[in-house]
Amino acid sequence: MSPPSTTLLTTAARAVNATKLYGQGDSAVRALDGVSVEFARGAFTAIMGPSGSGKSTLLHCLAGLDTLTSGEVYIADTPISGMSDNDLTLLRRDRLGFVFQTYNLVPTLTAAENIELPLRLAGRRADPAWFETVVGAVGLARRLRHTPAELSGGQQQRVAAARALITRPEILFADEPTGALDSRSGAELLAFLRRAADEFGQTIVMVTHDPLAAARADRVVFLADGRIVDDMIRPGADGILDAMKKLGG
Amino acid sequence: MLRVALKGLAARKLRLVLTAISIALGVSFVTGTFVLGDTMTATFDKMYSDLGQGTDVTVRGRPAFTDTTTLGSGRAMPEAVVDTVRKVPGVAAAEGGLTGYALMLDKSGTPIQPGGAPTLGVSYAQDRGLAGAIAPRAGRGPSGPGETAIDAATARKYGFAPGDRIRIVFESGKPAEFTVAGVLGFGDADNLAGATLAAFDLRTAQTVLRMEGKVDEISVRASDGISPDELRTRVAAVLPADLEAVTSATVAGEASKAVRDGLGFFTTAFLGFAGVSLLVGAFLIWNTFSILVAQRGREHALLRAIGARRRQLLGSVLTEAVAIGLLASALGLGLGLLVAGALRGLLASVGIDVPTTTIELQPRTVVAALVVGLGVTLAAALVPAWKATRIPPIAALRESAAPARTLPKGRIIAGGVLLVAGLPALAWAVAGPSRGGAAAIGSLATFLGLILLAPALVRPLVAVLGAPVARLGMAGALARQNAGRAPRRTASTATALMIGLAVVVAMTVVATSMKASVADVMERANRADLILKASSQLAAGIPADAADELRGLPEAGVVSPMRYGRIQVAGKTTSVAAVDPRTAEQVADIGVSSGSLPKLADGEVMVAADEAKTHGWRLGDEVTLRFPQTGDQVMRLAGTYTDTTLLGAGYLVTLAAHEANFSGRLDAVVLVRAAEGVPADDLKRSVRAALAGYPNVAVQDTDEFNAAQSATVDQLLGLVNVLLGLAVLIALLGVVNTLALSVLERTRELGLLRAVGMTRRQVRACVRWEAVLVAAIGSVLGTVLGLALGTAAARALADEGITVLQVPVALPLVYAVAAAAAGVLAAITPARKAAKVDVLRAVVAE
Hints:
The structure holds two protein chains of two kinds.
Chain A: H1 6-10, E1 11-22, E2 29-40, E3 44-48, H2 55-62, E4 70-75, E5 78-79, H3 85-95, E6 96-99, H4 111-121, H5 128-138, H6 153-166, E7 171-175, H7 183-200, E8 204-207, H8 211-214, E9 219-224, E10 227-233, H9 236-247
Chain B: H1 2-10, H2 13-51, E1 57-61, E2 77-78, H3 80-86, E3 91-97, E4 99-105, E5 119-123, E6 134-139, E7 147-151, H4 152-158, E8 165-170, E9 176-186, E10 196-200, H5 202-208, E11 214-215, E12 217-222, H6 228-238, E13 243-247, H7 248-295, H8 297-305, H9 310-349, H10 363-389, H11 409-431, H12 436-470, H13 474-483, H14 487-524, E14 530-534, E15 542-543, H15 544-551, E16 556-569, E17 572-579, H16 581-587, E18 592-595, E19 604-608, H17 609-615, E20 622-627, E21 631-641, E22 651-654, H18 655-661, E23 666-667, E24 669-674, H19 680-690, E25 697-701, H20 702-745, H21 747-755, H22 760-796, H23 810-826, H24 828-835, H25 839-843
Parallel strand pairs in B: 5-10, 7-9, 17-22, 19-21
Antiparallel strand pairs in B: 1-12, 1-13, 2-11, 3-12, 4-5, 4-8, 6-9, 7-10, 8-9, 14-24, 14-25, 15-23, 16-17, 16-24, 18-21, 19-22, 20-21
């Protein structure tokens, strides 16, 4: 057996020449235009860009929620194009975690049940120690029996984050997770994501248009018109703002 | 606003059709019943007017009273009356005729017994002008003692042609053999409303029908220029008081009315089924509109915000209801024509052959379809539509438009009161026999109470029934939660199923008790070893000679025939039984409570104890019984009896009294008891051998009798349940509809579940289990309710012969499990839709 390449060891996900077209012929819109990017294991990466830059499309394609027109996406060393719906579903369930902007929780389930949802769908129960760790980290120990309707927006997003972590996923994808939150709740959620990266070594890919949110990441990738236009390591809020000005966003 | 409503409709074609079908099925039953009834009435009207052609006035015995059971059984008159009538000025022709019982045998000796129709033996009119539309199609009319002419239908079906020999059974005597002289047609028809007919010349008819020197009808034709009414007046003037003259129009009218009355029971039954399915359909409509209104809350609020008035909003929702109602009416009308055909087949399968020529679609039927389809739909949609108008414009701006709905207090109180009143009433009805009032009120109150309270029962029922489902995994757990999520929606969906199933189960309880009662009567009151009756359930009876034949048999210790008739007492029509007083007590125990059955004389009557009490009669009182042919007869009350179950009649006279007052000479039943020391099997063998010449007599021991009775009840129950199955089917359509709408409502939630790892298979399982749970709730409620109502009904019918209450267990259980399992079928389409939800669109914020 040949040893795995170093790329595969350190890369959690990568896109190779990812292209996504909406519509057909002359009226086709290029949402992604040959994007190649790698996401290192253990890193917290933010994807930024103006509206229509293709950042959400890139995230959805990386996460197996959407399919590319051409190119390839790998989760670790697994190419995902051509996977059946069932295989993609199992991939999402067992290897990925999600936090969406809104509507993250099943309204009939309690916070605890929502957190356990991916495991229960797989017919497993949560490891009690890990469950306690995650719940403690998001500060929800006293709210576990509440239904989503009884929780604030910030609490709901933290439940969603806890659910995303409960399976110890290879990558946690977050799509504008703070977009619908007030600034204090948003800051709390970002603090939690940061801790997840630092303390649990969790790989995180987050789409955001908020420079303050992106500033908590290790790396910021800028997209415009479906192409990567900038890629910075720990740029800080000021660096991000400068880059955004350059993009005219 | 009309365009808004219509566009809304076009966007939801499938649901529209599904909803319309639920009502259309009920409508089709209404129209089908009407179409069949009208068609049959038209057919019979035409037939009777054809038969009356050429006859202006009919002379017949004046009946003391008439109803469907006495029609055509006029008293015979001396043949001399014919001459009297012939001499009346203005009479061009007059001819006497006779109608009686003649059962033809096919070439293998099996009786030719049509379903419910009679087997007629008639005299053949010599004056062809008075024969109406009856004419030979082949051969010629019968002439002389050895000849007959038979109806074309019998000739065709059983292969008889002129010149063939045919054997015919009469009310008395062994089968006699005749030569078929001709085959008769009846205008366009091959027979008379399904009856078989053997015609003889008048002399022969008088002989075989035992009516020597008599006729029972005189057909009279007027000379030119004399109107039927004028002739009737002239003829009536020469008749004795016990005879009457009527015009042909009157005769035809009476006959048609008799046919309609005879169909009345079936019309009522079919309309009853239509009612059940419409009720179930109404629930479906109510439910669909409630969900639609809830879903469109924001749309309605927006319309209100931009200036739509409440009335316009109401109009827009009701427009949708009108469209669905119209579609349902149209579909129902079309289906109704098919249903009419199916019902005709159904009647034929229970032995009621209906000749139909062309389908009658009368304006009234179309109006009924419209009124029922539109009316039920609108009525069911009214409350949801009204609720739509209550939405505040501000709701358009809120994130969630459908607030959690709690059950109104008024509804809980009303439902509670009805249950509190209904359950004790039911218990009271079950506790004692024949408490019909309590049973009816209790049933209705319990039924309505349960409908009102059903939403409150959903959560606990889901918790219990869903417990095993939840253990199957996340899909099951979610299904359980979803089923309990909108209790009112789940409740009204389940209620529809509950109604259908409750009626089915209640029917089963009554039928099972009926069978047990028959067996019980045989066990308790019957002392005979053999029961002889006509081999066809629908035949009039067996020749009296069969009993005579057995009296000479050494194995037969006691042979006791029973006959029946209809009489009126104090204006009410009831049954009278006739027995041989000397032998009756040796074969049957009727619980004589006063007087003595063996001493019953011909001018005396015994009366059921309850009946005597009702009328305030005492032993020795003079009681007036009105017989249809002989009028009022005063008889002395000679005794009372308590057990009417075996007899099935509240009045009992001697056979001689029966013969004096009724023209029929057939025995309904002959009870036979073995002579001392003769084993039952030997008796049966020798009785069967002795009656070899009577092919239409069935010889049954008590076990065989019970089995035959059970089979009849089962057949009827099967028929009823097939019809009620329709209502259950509609209820299952309701499950489909509700689930489809729920899936639509939960698009985002389903997308989220799919995003975090729920497989399509799991999504389908989740929807499927939800359907099963909803159906199971309906099944449980329906079965429990059905058992309660059926038990009360069976107890209430104690006077009608259901003396034993037997609650079936297995059958209702099978129904309940089957109905719940049918939820799987109902879930197929919604589950597929749920599994196809676009994950991305569901989770991406709008």
